[in-house]
Amino acid sequence: MACVAAFPPGILFAPEDEVAVEHYLLPRLLGLPLPIDGLILDDDPLSAPPQELLERNGRREEAFFFAEGQPRCGKGTRQKRTCAGGGWWEGQKTCAEGSKLRLPGGGEEAAWRKKALNFHCGGGGGGGKKGSTGWVMNEYAVTAPEDLAQSPLRLYHIQLSSYGRKQSGAMEVPRELGLPPGFLFAPEDADAVAHYLLPRLIGQPLPLEGLIVDDDPLSAPPWELLDRNGRKEDAFFFALGQVQNSKASRQKRTCAGGGFWNGERTCVDGEKLHVPCLGSGAEVMIWRKKALSFQDGGEKGSTRVGHARVCNHRARSLGRVAAECSIVSGSVATGRRGRGEKQIRARRSCSTAARQRVAEDALLSMPMSDPICSSMAQLIRQMAIASMGQKNTMRRQ
User: Fold this and answer.
1) d(CA 248, CA 359)
2) Total count of domains within the chain
3) Start and end of every NAC domain (predicted)?
4) 233 lies in some domain
């Protein structure tokens, strides 16, 4: 997934194969404008080893390129795969044939294929050990109609292999938000807090409105929650944490409709972030992330994975109440896919007592159970006023 600097934090360009061909390669072949210029680079993947290629184009571990394929001996169909500067791209034995796509402005259809390759180096006269370097490349080419298939233009996607790299959930950006096809929302934890949760907390505009949904993760099981919000397998939500009762700090985790979110024993504390607009002085925000798995029915088992990014906002300008106020920003992603929804719903006929179990934790200290508020800053102000009133009442007594 390639990060795009001109877009809001967490927005990545990661098109599906069919989207890459239909919305980027075919328009380029037909001379039509692309959805966004400069997103796919013009450079030859054989002009340098992949790391050097990406560095000189200002990319890190991933990039998309338009380039013309080069016949191995100046003619024929076999492609040259040797890189200038050493190393070569070694193709896998099989190619993937994509489904046919209808060309713009007519009834003609286009066929295409995808070939996967690995970058190798060493094994030459220098005595280096032959082997894969971890860089992979996908080559997309149109194979029909004939006039387009004769063009040597290809679309290349080069990236460092995901093996050993940290993986995170990614949500497809809804088309109604105005971005072209192929974009995902997959922010790092610190970016999610700094650029989305924190601005929402202090009443500032978000980088892209509508990307994170206002809904209660406990109002329905995760698949129903995502369905009713028009999401597929991943989504991000703003919601207020709900305490078990008015006197406790342990969080409610039971979902309406059955099932519960079961928290892991450990939490991840994030790096401290400076609050931008809360008066003078060094205002610091402390946050943490907690992972939870959704358990459903009488049979214990994980069906979905959720992450709660919790903001404990300690700012002098908000005083004691702000330190007690925590707001949850959560993401829900598909977990174990082998467990179908029909099986999950069928188990709801099991013991109702098992479904009433409450999975809770002492992560948050949040003495409130109000509905979701569109302005977190307004909520904090209301809490501050209420707390001051309680203090005055206690003093009179």
Assistant:
1) 14
2) 2
3) 7-161, 179-330
4) yes
In 3D, which of 196, 156, 289 has the Cα closest to residue 10?
Answer: 196
Task: Give per-residue pLDDT as tens, 209-244.
Answer: 999 999 999 999 999 999 999 988 889 999 998 887
Supply the pTM of this predicted model. Answer: 0.68
Range list of H helices, the chain: 17-20, 26-30, 50-56, 146-149, 189-192, 198-201, 222-228, 319-324, 341-346, 352-355, 376-396
Side chain identity, residue 249: S
Of 132, 112, 114, nearest to 123 (Cα)? 132
Same domain, 238 and 114: no
Whether residue 26 sits in one domain with residue 156: yes
Check whether residue 109 and residue 220 sit in a common domain.
no
**Read out DSSP for 138-167?**
EEEEEEESHHHHT--EEEEEEEE--TTSPP
Q: Do 223 and 348 have their domain in common?
A: yes
Q: Is 259 left (phi over 0), alpha (psi -120 to 50) or beta?
A: left
Q: Which residues pair with 142 in a beta bridge?
A: 112
Indicate whether 117 and 243 sit together in one domain. Answer: no
CB 189 within 8 A of CB 289: yes
Please check whether residue 168 lies inside any domain of the structure. no
Domain housing 60: 2-70+91-122+130-160
| Interval 113-155: pLDDT, tens | 999 999 998 754 444 456 778 899 999 999 999 999 999 999 9
Q: Do residues 194 and 273 touch, judged by C-beta distance below 8 A?
A: yes
Position 360 pLDDT exceeds 60: no
E strands, 232-358, where?
A: 234-239, 260-269, 273-274, 284-295, 302-314, 326-334
| C-beta of residue 275 within 8 angstroms of C-beta of residue 287 | no
According to the per-residue pLDDT averaged within each range, which of 5-14, 62-71, 345-354 is highest? 62-71
Q: Could you tell me if residue 85 is inside a domain? A: no
The tokens describing 368, both together, are 């409130």
Contact criterion met (CB below 8 Å) for 6 and 12:
no
Residues 196 and 343 in one domain: yes
Percent of all residues in the chain with a pLDDT value above 90, rounded to a whole number: 34
